[in-house]
Amino acid sequence: MDPIWWLPLAICTALFTAFKDLLGKRSVAKKDPWAVASAMHLIAFLVLLPLLPFMQRPAIGSDFWWALLGSGSINVAAMILYLKALQAADLSLTTPMLTTTPLFLLVTSPIIVGETPSAMGLIGVVLIFLGAYLLNISQRHLGFWAPFKALWDHKGPRYMLLVAFMFSISSNLDKVGILNSSPLFWLFCLFAFISAGTLTLALYHGHSPREVLVDEPLSLSLQGVLFSAAALSQFFAIQLTMVPYVIAIKRTSALIAVGLGIWLLKESGGRERITGALVMFGGFLFITFAGQSG
């Protein structure tokens, strides 16, 4: 495949993710997140299943299984929290929190691998905090720290912030898993784990994917297809260029989701949320590419 295709593939990843979040927001407004998560991931896994005959089994390294257990478990918990965040708050208020993932990497990297953030990375940190502040700037009249307090007091943004932290850990485990197998094999195994995990937990909590698939077959099917399509387009894109470039484009899904929430779901605070999301995305870019400039 021509390397020039990485950009369209990365853009597709962002679009698929944003529209998946829009549909997910509508689903959890009416259905339990456990049922929605299990149905969406089951369909996503079934979409990937036809690729199995064409997949060569790689040599499995010694660290593969613990990486799969770790990343899979974290992703199962993160996916549930992800949907609970969408259920608890506006799409335009929760999705910008995902741009904080590299912020957590700046905190964990000095501890784990002894890396310290560059000046460019520190500028990114400031921009992310400024953007988060702007998301609720209308609360400024209640006190200087009121915009931050409003975010923290709201379950939706707080849950999504935790999701971003969990993704910052699972992404490192994903790298271990890929190095001990192959990218496509890892993707397939991870989806199988997440599908089985969300289904098991949904049944444990008294919910089944059937309860949402019967009522919303088209919406849940689309969510599953979009989820797997986003993963595949991201997978192919990172084969053609550097991973940070693909992730930077992918995270524009937060900006797209903000726009969709304001436009289609009629969410309030459009101007401040768009401004805040743009500034946070700018911070994301600074942190992401600070590591590349070194």
Automatic annotation (TrEMBL):
Q: Where is the EamA domain?
A: 5-136, 159-288
The UniProt transmembrane annotation reads: 6-23, 35-52, 64-83, 95-113, 119-138, 184-206, 218-237, 274-291
Which keywords does UniProt give here? Membrane, Transmembrane, Transmembrane helix
Q: Which GO terms describe its cellular component?
A: membrane
Q: What is this protein called?
A: EamA domain-containing protein
Which source organism? Magnetococcus massalia (strain MO-1)
